[in-house]
Amino acid sequence: MSTTLSERLTQELNSLREGGLLIHPRVLERANRARTRVDGREVVNLASNNYLGFADHPALKAKAESYLREWGVGAGAVRTIAGTLSIHEALERQIADFKHTGSALVLHSGFTTNQGVLGALLREGDLVVSDELNHASIIDGLRLTKATKKVFKHADVDDLDRVLSENDSEGLKLVVTDGVFSMDGDVAPLDRLVAVARKHGAVTYVDDAHGSGVMGAQGRGTVHHFGFEYADDVIQVGTLSKAWGGVGGYAAGHGDLRQLLINRARPYLFSTAQAPATVGALSAALEEVQRDPGLMERLWDNTRYFKAELHTLGFDTMGSVTPITPVVFGEAPAAFEASRRLFGEGVFAVGLGFPTVPRGSARIRNIVTSEHTKDDLDHALQAYAKVGRALGIIGG
Ligand code: PMP
Fold first, then answer.
1. Is 100 labeled as catalytic in the residue annotation?
2. Is the ipTM above a cut-off of 0.95?
3. Distance CA 57, CA 53 (A)
4. Which of 73, 108, 209, 289 has the fewest CB atoms in 10 Å of its CB?
5. Are 35 and 42 in contact (CB under 8 A)?
């Protein structure tokens, strides 16, 4: 007899429960800001990707409202049918100008952008070499292609060189890396990665989900930070859902990239375009980051302050150099317990354990934003000191 739906659901949920992997997301009862209300509690929020406080920013809301009034609630169709509004095209020009690239295309999310771009670009016979810690959407995107896939050790340029020396292809060769790694907060060594890629005639593909709006002058991204923004052999993709405050993804690079994606990227071809209010918010975000230098200053001042104080307390932040600040607790149960206790102290920060991160480096991932005040960060640091001592992670 075949499996019933009830049987399948019970089996799957039980296996997750037994592995301690069943997820119960906490619920935010107000907007996703530096201080918010979660599951009935006022908290300092260190769990969001809202790097520049754009998720609930007045300038973004004003432009979103005006686009909503003028353009309605939905784009009405897939873009190739009748869903390409002039505001979508204007946003793409804005992104290409901001990123200093030949072209840019906007998609529905960072996740679908990786699927769309990798799927559109790669063919059988091509070679892709991907950092072992790349994001799940890259891994899924690569699964959609018939290219030969190889992995190099995380941020290890010599290993990349070895893999490219041992595997050749007559087709396109693509080196794929995150710009900023979402779990460790480290930055890909793009200067050396691009040099090795070029030595082997390979193109570099950077997923800058956590670098766009964070790295580089005015948040232009990791590719800009390393000075490759005009390079035709570097493709940047990313999300518009983290620092940029809305939802969506972009791909930017070579002048012909956009045209190819319009014709080949399946999410572009088969999924309805972004809502006008979202487009308005994103357009305002790009204006605002260039108008208000205080946003980036506060983001990086807060980042430096929070890390320095955590180090003084004796915590290990894994050498992270970006606003993503992991605090190591060892094994998963300790990290989850710390997260629970921090929540009790009014700090919302998520514990991550195996398989999301390697065994032995279970951690709490904190993301500092421009919106946190010194009081917010001091509150969090006091909570960390208390919880870290109680769990024996730090001394004193
Ligand atoms: N790439 C990376 C590196 C990410 O961290 C994320 C977000 N989790 C994504 C892609 C997906 O972006 P989005 O949330 O816009 O789908």
1. no
2. yes
3. 6
4. 73
5. yes
44 and 96 in a single domain? The answer is no
Q: Which of 61, 210, 307, 379 is catalytic?
A: 210
Of 262, 291, 320, the position where a domain reaches its end is: 291
Q: Which of 291, 323, 341 is the last residue of a domain?
A: 291
Confidence of residue 21 (pLDDT cuts 50, 70, 90): confident
Ligand 1 center to 244 CA (angstroms)? 12
Query: Is the confidence at residue 295, as pLDDT, over 90?
Result: yes
> Which of 205, 206, 239, 282 best tests ligand 1's pocket when mutated (most atoms within 8 Å of CB)?
239
Please tell me whether residues 209 and 268 are part of one structural domain.
Answer: yes
Domain check: are 281 and 349 in the same one? no
Has residue 19 got a pLDDT over 80? yes
Q: Which domain holds residue 348?
A: 22-54+293-390
Is residue 7 included in any domain, yes or no?
A: no
Nearest by Cα to 32 from 47, 12, 18, 20: 47
Taking the CA of residue 248 as reference, the ligand 1 atom at the shortest distance is 15
Q: Which of 347, 303, 336, 343 is nearest to 321 (CA)?
A: 303
Asked if residue 194 lies in contact with residue 158, where contact means CB atoms within 8 angstroms, the answer is no
Same domain, 50 and 63: no
Which two tokens mark 308? 């320095």
Structure-token pair, residue 228: 């490759």
Cα of 110 from ligand 1 centre, angstroms: 5
- Please tell me whether the overall predicted TM-score, pTM, comes out greater than 0.95 for this model: yes
Domain CATH code at residue 70: 3.40.640.10
Does 330 score more than 80 pLDDT?
yes
More confident residue, 179 or 357: 179
Same domain? 262 vs 349: no
What is the CB < 6 Å shell around ligand 1?
A: 109-111, 135, 137, 178, 182, 207, 209-210, 239, 241, 249
What's the CATH code of the domain at 326?
Answer: 3.90.1150.10
Closest atom, ligand 1, to C-alpha of 241: 15
- Predicted pLDDT of residue 355: 84
Query: Ligand 1: which of 48, 135, 235 to mutate, judged by most atoms within 8 Å of the beta carbon?
Result: 135
Q: Report the alpha-carbon distance of residue 11 to residue 176 in Å, rounded.
A: 36
